[in-house]
Design brief:
Structural class of chain A: mainly alpha
GO biological process, one term (chain A): respiratory electron transport chain
Number of domains of chain A: 1
Structural class of chain B: mainly alpha
Largest sheet of chain A: none
CATH superfamily of chain A: Cytochrome c oxidase-like, subunit I domain
CATH architecture of chain A: Up-down Bundle
Helix content of chain A: 55-70%
Number of helices of chain B: 13
CATH topology of chain A: Cytochrome C Oxidase, Chain A
Shape of chain B: globular
Main location (chain A): membrane
Organism (chain A): Zunongwangia profunda (strain DSM 18752 / CCTCC AB 206139 / SM-A87) (Wangia profunda)
Keywords (chain A): Cell membrane, Copper, Electron transport, Heme, Iron, Membrane, Metal-binding, Respiratory chain, Transmembrane, Transmembrane helix, Transport
Bound molecules: protoporphyrin IX containing FE, copper (II) ion
Oligomer: heterodimer
Radius of gyration of chain A: 23 Å
Protein name (chain A): Cytochrome c oxidase subunit 1
Radius of gyration of chain B: 21 Å
Chain lengths: 552, 281
Amino acid sequence: MSLFINIQEGEDQLPEVTSDKGRLLWISSVDHKQLGIMYLWLALFFFIIGGLEAMLIRAQLAVGDNDLISPEFYNQLFTMHGTTMIFLVLMPALIGLATYLIPLMIGANEMAFPRLNAFSFWMTCLGGFLMYFSFFAGGAPDAGWFNYAPLSESNYSSTQGVDYYLVGLILTGMGSIGAGLNFVTTILTLRSPDIKLNMLPLFAWMIFINGFLILAAFPLLNAGLFMMLIDRQFDAHFFIPSSGGSAILWQHFFWSFGHPEVYILALPAFGIISEVIPVFSRNKIFGYKFVAASTVAIALLAFGVWVHHMFAVGMTNTVNGFFAASSMLIGIPTGVKVINWIGTLYKGSIRMTVSMMFAVAFLIDFTIGGLSGASFAIVPIDWQLTDTYYVVAHIHYVFLGGTAFGIFAGIYYWFPKISGRFLSEKLGKWHLWLFVIGFNFTFLVQHVLGILGMPRRIYTYPSRFGSWEIFNMISTLGAVMMFVAIAVFLWNLFITLKKPRTAPKNPWEAWTLEWATNSPPDLKNFEEVPRVHSRRPLWDLANPDNPDKRLN
Amino acid sequence: MINTDFFITPDNWSFAGIILSVLVIAAYLLFLKTKTSQKAYFIVTVILLYVSFGSPIALLRDYGLHSLTMLQHIVLLMIAPILFLKSIPSNTILFSEKFKLNILQQPKNYYLMFWWLSAVMMWGGHFLSAGILSAETGTSICGITATKDSWITAIPESLILSLLFIAGILFALPVFNPVKSKRLAPLKSVIYLFTACVSCSLLGLYVAFSASTDTLNSSLTAFTTLRSPVPLTLRADQELAGMLMWVPGCILYVLASVSILLSWYEENPVEKSETAIHTAK
Ligand code: HEM
Ligand SMILES: [Cu+2]
């Protein structure tokens, strides 16, 4: 039985990009490369906004007893910062890279559903801008990125902010579901006939698995969001305990989405790292099958651990105990991957490009984040540290030191392919060092702050807590370094994009199919797809006398 | 306090069960030529069955422990069948061409049926057992109450358990068929197992989170469980039952999926068809 039916699209139905219509045609584009690039711009735009919000937060917290910002506005800031970074920066950046690269990696000329692809992008865009419109409509959402009930219900959040949050996330959620469906279908149906599923590049494999995760997780979020919208708009009380609802139910909805979501953001980054490290170590990935299979294990286990976000809501030891165990178990497949990446580096002839350096920074900082995660999978430790800055440190080590470093590694790696130009390595190194050092300054000390008992989301703290003030100041200074790093990155982008296109097809001597196309690829990616017999087709072409083991 | 005496009293270990287990193992070792790993699988299967039926753990059931029933179900439906199939040599008469039972010949053609059968058995078996337990002990189990003389008590528990074991074997057959060539394709197997895992998770979730928190007698070590050697409140007992099904139950299928995938990644159809030609010659 074949898993799909081939439905032929009519030849000329889809609008085409022609040069005489200029930039405007991007709006109507259904080309996966243009959509991918637009996702990346969108992510960059919101990254700047979310970054400015973070700078305001850090400015407010730099010293004790500070009243630079009002408490109300502070709540809006951290809510929008978290929501923006997760749903409007990391998601679009990863989906954008995947939208751009997946067809190229599997020898296809388009995504399976080009119009759905455009729809997904525009939904994400609309959701994001709608959410930001709330600032002009009486105040942004202010109940935290996870929007706990009953705080988020109308009697406690009486501005329209939370409604904007709900509708905005429903829209971006629909976009993500569309993207997930598109990835899965594209990879199942549009691979070049040579490529069997077990020959996919690791990035493509992880996006494939991620597609299923998205399809399973986002509907849970959207269901919860709709229910809360009904609560707020039509006076229902799904999540209002005083009239028979259950506030805990919201937490279940949110985290049964939320924990898979953290892996939805981690897996594509793992995929990027699994492409970058081998290429710059001149080594085949060590243990492909373990990296790939552990991805599946992570995806399946991801749905069995969410209650670790709720250890403090008063469940019994029985329930907590099992979720502690499953949470620690999910660390194992992640650890397997780290070992394989290190194994790939071992005895490689390493080229320390900026991309590679970000990958190494990822390895170190993501591992720290995994360890802090494992530490509060232990229930009593979690009771002590939950809702403190320790959680903030954990989140940032996995999302910023993990996912975002992965994205930067990917951007520096694929930039020549996407734009035909090389980002400056010199500025890149400034960006890298400032960012990595600033990052560790900012967040390493937050572990200590958490242990000292500083709650997350507080607007200010008494300046007589001397050590708090010192650590917070360090944290803020680190944030300033990251701010400068991003300015360098933007400058790098700006001057690079003004240069002429000089990148050859395969500047890094990489091995996957996207590097067989022009840089940037033509509107039709491949006139002719090279024959593929292993996971490294371009290696086989370059080394006919020493090809990889044949897999088809 | 857990009463350890209960577990070390020889009377609570079924002697007949030990004899039977030894005999079965001896027969297996004598009559079947198998690999060492298969022998190990078989011995573990028998030990598991003994522990869940002949050991003091099985006797805990009489104290109305819901979690214990769940443990038995997991062993019978999910763990033992897989180990059992792994221990059976591929030339066993049951699976050979001579034995003309199509269901066993080509079990993979029936995989949807097997999937549903085992899902129905899992949910149905669980609720029936809960009902019987409730009738016997007078407690409410998983929201189910049955009176002392309810029709449900007419169903022998052993019938449910045997049916569970059979359903478990049929479920595992498409994926763990001793004859390799008759197994489902690797990716199909993974989906097959994963969807089953979802079904287990849902049952586990339902059982764990429907544990009642509001009645006094659920939060006290009340009635029957008070005398139990492993005193659990009704609530803890039920949560334990659900979590057992959910977490270890699910991880079992995750592990199985991963091991299937690990060999699939290295699979090469060219080599495979070549060896097929060789053996055909
Ligand atoms: C070794 C694996 C991991 C374990 C055991 C783990 C465990 C935990 C636990 C127990 C919490 C709840 C802390 C609390 O609120 O009291 C938590 C929070 C969080 N984790 Fe992890 N984690 C792991 C890996 C990751 C990864 C890989 C990511 C993302 C890529 C991640 C993202 C998050 C986020 C975003 C939160 C905070 C949610 C919030 O309260 O705002 N974690 N983690
Ligand atoms: Cu989590």
